[in-house]
Amino acid sequence: MHTESSSNQEQVGGKKTSRGRKILLWVGGIFLASVIVVIGCLMILGYLYFSVLSRSLSRDCFWQADALAFEDLNADGIYQEEEHPMEGVQLSLFVYYKGGGQKGSESAFVTGKDGKVNVGTGLPGCPEVTFKLISELPDGYEFTTPGVFETENYVLEDPIPFGFAPKKLSP
Fold first, then answer.
1. pTM for this model (two decimals)
2. Which domain holds residue 33?
3. In this structure, are 44 and 82 located in the same domain?
4. Within a domain: 171
5. How far apart are CA 164 and CA 134, in angstroms?
6. What is the rounded CA–CA span in Å between residue 164 and residue 60?
7. What digits encode the pLDDT tens for the residues 44-71?
8. Are the C-beta atoms of residues 125 and 154 closer than 8 Å to each other?
9. Are 100 and 51 within one domain?
10. Distance from C-alpha of 91 to C-alpha of 110, rounded to nearest angstrom
């Protein structure tokens, strides 16, 4: 019996260990290594999805800007405190995709009592586009600023000014 038990045991690190225990430790080590590899792969796939794929697949953008219509008393194209905001000025927003083509229909906006209006549109996928905001010319006025504002930027910090001076009557 003593010889049989000694044949099922080995000397490992100064301690006697049975072959069954050695196999169990080896299988446990392989299992633990496999779990670590799977977790690592899931972390890499998660990073790729959230940092790369999700942005390109489902990113949407919203363009918005403030516009200001005002009666430009000194016709310098710059809004000053003594100048009056203009209510009811109609603005149209067009979106042109790079490479040609217009985004369906236009969007219409009207300035309020303070002469301001917030204009905007949503764009799925954040395409490269040009935004064109066009002001209607009110009767009896002429532009002191460009009547068309064009940009490729999704973010604008300053209001878009639309200045109007009363038309001078010709003699």
1. 0.62
2. 2-57
3. no
4. no
5. 14
6. 35
7. 877 766 655 544 555 788 888 999 999 9
8. no
9. no
10. 6
